[in-house]
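Consider the tokenized backbone below.
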């Protein structure tokens, strides 16, 4: 018989099924992973991550949107000169 507490001690990355997600920006394909934790969709890449409430959206569609927004925000930060103090 399996313990009811058996799943509680499992690492977080095993509790939520990860799915791959990708998007194309200026002819270059970028990829990451997403998972749903409760009603929150989380997108993760090597450059960072972001999350948003899933609501009535399809997880795959929202993940692509979040990935694209994250990558464009990172690109904008990389090209914006630092503010002088």
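A designed sequence for it:
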């Amino acid at each position: 018989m399996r313990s009811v507490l058996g799943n509680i001690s499992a690492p977080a990355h095993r509790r939520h099924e990860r799915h791959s997600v990708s998007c194309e920006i200026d002819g270059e394909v970028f990829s990451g992973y997403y998972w749903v934790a409760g009603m929150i969709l989380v997108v993760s890449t090597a450059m960072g991550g972001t999350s948003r409430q899933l609501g009535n959206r399809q997880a795959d569609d929202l993940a692509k949107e979040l990935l694209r927004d994250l990558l464009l925000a990172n690109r904008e930060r990389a090209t914006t000169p630092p503010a002088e103090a």
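The beta strands are 19-25, 28-37, 40-45, 48-53.
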